[in-house]
Design brief:
Blueprint: E1 2-11, E2 14-21, H1 23-40, H2 53-83, E3 88-98, E4 105-113, E5 126-130, H3 136-148, E6 152-156, E7 165-174, E8 177-178, H4 179-182, H5 187-190, E9 191-198, E10 220-226, E11 240-254, H6 260-264, H7 271-304, H8 312-332, H9 337-342, H10 344-371, H11 378-391, H12 396-405, H13 409-427, E12 430-434
Parallel strand pairs: 5-12
Antiparallel strand pairs: 1-2, 2-4, 3-4, 6-11, 7-8, 7-9, 7-11, 10-11
Length: about 450
């Protein structure tokens, strides 16, 4: 079928494939396709399939030519890639050079290829594991957090104390001007009614809560604050704010009794069973964090042991994915769109660095899987799909259908393969157990 195939290196991971298909094959394809159109053609005055060849050619000439070209280029391209043993990344950019009846087909395909590199030593990668255990104190802290999920807020007729909730009305100024004039987008800081402030450290604005302590409902306070230099609203960053505050209500936090009845709210038989369940959850969480830390170190060690060129298209595609994730996360955290827009250069730069490492890791993972004959079964991919479906609260059948529609099945296999390779690297890592690093001043104990 193919008369000639030549390959030119355009750049790292980019090649130009020139392909020529014999004229006899081209004419044969035109003849076969024309016959297929004859079978289906319905022309006035002729029964389906009985129209003369010349009339079919006249009416469907453009469609026939398009179909022949599609089939021939597709088949010739696949055979040329197989013949030259090229691993293609993404889709080719096809340029037609010569095509038509009575002519050899000639086309060029610009393709990106998988990088060529020597796999580094990947067994025995060093990693440190902090020796930690789940203590009774950890369990009690977790129990208190569970209790706080059922806290009640009761209005009390006394002065405001640390740990209370202050319900306030306030208006704010900055350097003598209403905040709305200084920062038009900061409407929430300019004025609020019935706003809840937790009287504790590092809540709302610096020093705001502390200056309300001792006030009673109906009382008035003038509160001053220094907006941090990295404050989200840039117009206020590093400046002083003054707030006229009216205390509407003092609310006291009332925690539920931690007893057997409380345990039953979480599906436990009694308080002791709840504590056992909490301990298991904490131990699983600790194991997960240790595994994650080890794998991150192993990945870093693997990435640092080899350098190679990466396909530009793969990096660009992954960069778009990372940018989307960063923007989405910032939006969910409440960062204003204009603030995100101002940081677009920094976001793109960070996304590009991350994308390059992701793409590099994917090629390393793929090569290690091939070297160690690590494969993914259909059952493993299905289990992964069921886990994701449950996570996103989508029926498994619908999740799989949606995955097939967007050609995401291979992505599923890749995820499972990566998980299996990382587990393999962890099992073969050179792990050193170390004592936990001492907590810094003010750090919250684990």
């Amino acid at each position: 079928m193919i008369v000639n195939v030549t390959v030119e290196n355009l750049a790292p991971c980019k090649k130009l494939l020139r392909v020529e298909v014999d004229v006899k094959v081209v004419d044969g394809a035109f003849d076969a396709t024309t016959k297929e159109f004859q079978k289906q053609a319905a022309l006035p005055g002729f029964r389906p399939g009985k129209a003369p060849r010349a009339m079919v050619l006249k009416k469907y000439e453009a469609d026939i030519k398009s179909e022949v070209k599609r089939k021939l280029i597709g088949e010739a391209y696949r055979k040329a890639v197989d013949e030259k043993k090229i691993t293609v990344v993404g889709y080719p950019d096809i340029e037609e050079i010569q095509f038509g009846p009575g002519q050899a087909l000639q086309f060029a395909a610009t393709i990106e290829t998988a990088p060529d590199f020597q796999l580094p030593e990947y067994k025995g990668l060093p990693a440190k594991r902090e020796i930690k255990v789940t203590t009774d104190e950890d369990v009690e802290r977790a129990m208190k957090l569970l209790a706080q999920q059922h806290v009640r807020f009761e209005t009390v007729a006394r002065e405001l104390r640390p740990g209370d909730i202050a319900v306030v009305n306030y208006t704010g100024t900055c350097e003598g001007k209403p905040i709305i004039e200084v920062a038009p987008t900061a409407k929430g800081l300019a004025e609020q009614k019935n706003f809840w402030v937790d009287i504790g450290p590092e809540t709302f604005l610096p020093g705001f809560a502390d200056q309300l302590i001792g006030a009673k409902a109906g009382g008035q306070r003038t509160v001053s604050t220094d907006f941090p230099a990295d404050f989200a609203t840039k117009e206020l960053a590093g400046k002083k704010g003054v707030f006229e505050v009216e205390l509407v209500e003092v609310k006291e936090k009332a925690l539920p009794a931690v007893d057997d009845a409380f345990a039953k709210k979480y599906g436990a038989e009694n308080l002791e069973k709840l504590r056992e369940g909490v301990r298991r959850d904490l131990e699983n969480e600790l194991k997960y964090s240790q595994t994650k830390a080890i794998r991150n170190q192993v990945i870093r060690g693997l990435l640092d042991r080899v350098n190679f060129d990466l396909p530009e298209t793969a990096v660009a595609h992954e960069t778009r994915n990372v940018v989307y994730d960063i923007v989405r996360e910032n939006s969910q955290r409440g960062v204003a769109r204009d603030a995100i827009e101002k940081q677009k250069d920094e976001i793109y730069s960070a996304a590009t660095r991350s994308a390059k490492e992701r793409v590099k890791l994917s090629f390393l993972i793929q090569r290690i899987a091939e070297q160690e004959n690590i494969k993914v079964t259909q059952e493993e991919a299905l289990r992964r799909a069921q886990t994701l479906a449950a996570m996103y609260q989508i029926p498994p059948d619908k999740f799989l259908k949606d995955l097939q529609k967007r050609n995401g099945v291979m992505e599923l296999y890749d995820q499972v393969a990566q998980e299996k390779v990382l587990a393999f690297l962890e099992q073969n890592a050179r792990i050193e157990d170390v004592s936990p690093a001492p907590a810094g001043p003010g750090a919250t104990p684990n």
